[in-house]
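Kindly review this protein for my students:
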Amino acid sequence: MTRERLHREDPDRLYTVTGGRSRADESGLDLVTLIVSESDPVPGMQSEHVRILHLCRHPTAMVEVASELGLPVSVVKILLCDLLDTGRVTARHPSPAPAGADLPDLETLEQVLRGLHKL
């Protein structure tokens, strides 16, 4: 989402989407938390909830959900808490790499980073 689009977003719409809430109760959600749908949408659901359930049929990071919906992460976090409370989605953090995993060395990663900066 671009800053320009966010600044043009109607605050009344965001207020309506969140039901007037400005904070989510779930502190365990962060940008990389993976969200997975556990049920299909039902008639009468809020359209943003329906879109989240469709987007998260496969594990999807919270930041990706926010990007796809074109909404601020704080608003999406509130919507996800609604769905978590009703059991319609589950949330989990990505698994860390196993202790013995064959990871690239620091020098290789620095070379990749320098190459990306040159693009």
Summary: The chain is about 45% helix and 10% strand. The chain has a mean pLDDT of 83. The helical segments are 3-8, 11-17, 47-55, 62-69, 73-85, 106-118.
